[in-house]
Structure formats: structure tokens, C-alpha cells
């Protein structure tokens, strides 16, 4: 950073740039006579890429030299990575997401730092040059690629990058996204069909329920069209129903509240309930209760 004019303390102000290869003793120096100069370029065609140098910058004017800045380490320009990442793996997480992981190239196989990785992902019926690109930063060796098409074959490849550019690509790996989740939510049982006593039958594939006063949720999954819940008395319950598949969870139904049942009502009674699946577009519960009173 340049020194403000009010701190130059006289005419003939300029800078002294001192530098040396890291680990050596002797300093090389050059004078930059302009007080507005903010950079100096040292050219040496034999300088290896990414060579570390110690650098410090001093000041002077017509009265003499001032102090130097603290020493810092800078590097000559680097070359792009020369080796590709290895051990690339991909797995489907859902109908729209896949996870990719890889191993970095050997450190001594490139002339510069790896600043991150670029993952390219393209569908089997697309051209590679139109691939979706996801970049990571630093030493991260896995990432997620999102917004993909369900039940589709994709190719993925990984390459390292730095300030000089990107390196060679790894071999492509294949992954097929999962089937999309069910597109519609199940119908909600009508309030009039909610049983007045437990147990409760609810038809669908995944049932989520919790006490009305608690935040934790219990989940029951089934491949049948009904499930029986044995619920304690004297508690309000919130129930949701949603379809599931290999592609993930579908949309949940609207919440339905099961009011608590008093012990006085249930005492001395024996009850049973049955549920049937209607052929209509929504699921209806048909429940009956038999009392010994």
C-alpha cells in the first residue's frame, strides 16, 4: 500500500523493494522512484513455477531511507494442476440430488496449490460441454449436485483448479437418480370418521404422529394400506399421512387432530375399530365402536 503524501516527510519520495528466495541469506534490492507506485514485477525466465520468495518494502526520500515493512512470503505464478483427482465415486441421494466424492492428486504432481475442485455433471442424452458445474473451495473432497431430473442416467467428472486454471479431468463415473417421489399427497380422513376410542386405523404408507403438546414426532412406515396405532388415553394427538417411495417422501396430508378421550368414557367398555380404503379419489376412514355399556 502506498504511503500518504502527508507521511512522506519530504521530496524525492520512493520505495525500496527487497526480496530473496525463501531459505537464502542475501537480499536483492530495487528502487521504485514513483511515490504512487503500488507494485513491482520481477522477471526471470528461469524461475520455477510457484517459487516462494521473502519480500519486504522500505521507503526513502531526499533525507535518507526509512524503515522496512515486515517480511512476507509471496509466490511466483503457478501452473494449473497436471494430475486429475482419483477414486471418484457417486451415489444417488434422491430424485434430484447426487453426492460425489474423490481423492486429491498427489501433492508432488502439480506446480502450484489446489484451490478447489470442479465437478461437471451431464445427463446421458446431453453434450458434455453443456454440463452443470459445481465448484468446491479448499480441501473439500465431496459435494452434492442438485436440481437433477429424476430416474435419469448422469455422467460426472472432477478436476482440480487454481489461479492458473483447471487441470485434467478424471474419468467419468455414472449414477442414476432415484425415481421421483409420489406427486400427490394422501387425502385426510374426515373428522366424522375419526374413532372415539383407541386403537385407531389410518390408511396410507407413512404415518407421523405426536402429542399435541410435544414437538417430537413418531413415524410408522408400512407397505399396507392401513396401520393400527395404540394411543394412550387423555392425550391430544396430531396425525399426518404421506406417501413414500425410493425417490423420497411425497407431500404430507393436512394435519388432523385426535382429541383426548376421558378415562370415564373408556372405563367399563370394550372397543374395536376397523378401517376400509375407499375407491374414491380421497381416502376415507370408516370406523365403528362397540361398547359393553
UniProtKB/TrEMBL annotation:
GO CC annotations on file: axon; plasma membrane
InterPro entries tied to this protein: FN3_dom, FN3_sf, Ig-like_fold
Domain Fibronectin type-III: 1-79, 84-180
Keyword Disulfide bond: yes
GO biological process: axon guidance; brain development
Spans annotated as Disordered: 166-192
Residues in coiled coil: none
GO molecular function, one term: cell-cell adhesion mediator activity
SMART domains: FN3 (SM00060)
PROSITE patterns reported for this sequence: FN3
Pfam families from the UniProt entry: fn3
Keyword annotations from UniProtKB, A to Z: Cell adhesion, Cell membrane, Disulfide bond, Glycoprotein, Lipoprotein, Membrane, Repeat, Signal
Biased segments, Polar residues type: 166-177
Protein's cellular compartments: Cell membrane
UniProt KW Transmembrane keyword: no
Record-given protein name: CNTN4 protein
Native source species: Campylorhamphus procurvoides
